[in-house]
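Table S2 (text version). Query chain:
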Amino acid sequence: SVIILRGTYTKLFAEAWNYRDGTLSRVWQWNRTGGGGFHNLRVGDIDGDGKDEIINGSMAIDDDGRHLWVTGEDHGDRLHMTDIDPSRPGLEIFYVQESPSVYQHPHHLRDARTGQLIWGPTAKAGDNGRGNCGDVSAAHPGVECWSSAVDGLISATGQNAGSKPSSVNFSIWWDGDLLRELLDGTTISKYGGGTLLSASGCTAGSRNAPMGYGDVIGDWREEVFQRCGNTIRIYTTTVPTEFRHYTLMHDSDYRTSVASETMGYMQSTQPGFFFGEGMAPSTAPAITVPCRP
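Corresponding structure-token output:
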């Protein structure tokens, strides 16, 4: 299906369309007045029914167009959905909020299926414009999160996990371990370490973002697309790894997170399962391509 969405701050609209046997037909239509949209979205199966739901900012839309839940914390710029806390069932969403006159938490973690709050500080922090998630530290189980206006690195359970990373832009799998590195503009660095890549002669775009990135070669590490003068360069890691895993593009949540780089504000790529230090063995998904006569 093709999903079309419009609106961010006041009115929001969504439609699903199918193209079958040369005919385009609308499957459902959804709308909401009151804002709460973000500058990007996330797509994934949050309720375990085998069909994708849409996280349209602060609200969730079911696969049949029904409204599922809304956080009530209004608009923000960043959201991240993956299995942030592997000790809990299902996926979680880390939200970063913009409007202190409306939000109850400058950043917060919520259950993706129900929208219920898991943790979040209540002290106002102004316009909290940036936030990121990635398993950058092996000292704490699960994925760590952090945001620009709140101090510290936060563990999956909401505890202080150390100093905040120097970059709050994007997370990337680059070197040989299962932890994520920090991608900011034309530079990749290690949390608590040094610079791993500096793309000399290249320039970043709006909000210090590269042209795009993702696991396009297929060994689970991620490549970065950079604009360098009148050329496009693809940078890939040269670091060996002892870990084997199927290409992340086989995971539909990850694939749609890469696709969403072309809309709104670029967000970190995220799979639909926990991928990091101490992860459980995973099985490659069964992908079939329908044949047409």
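Notes on Table S2: The mean pLDDT is 94. The helical segments are 252-259.
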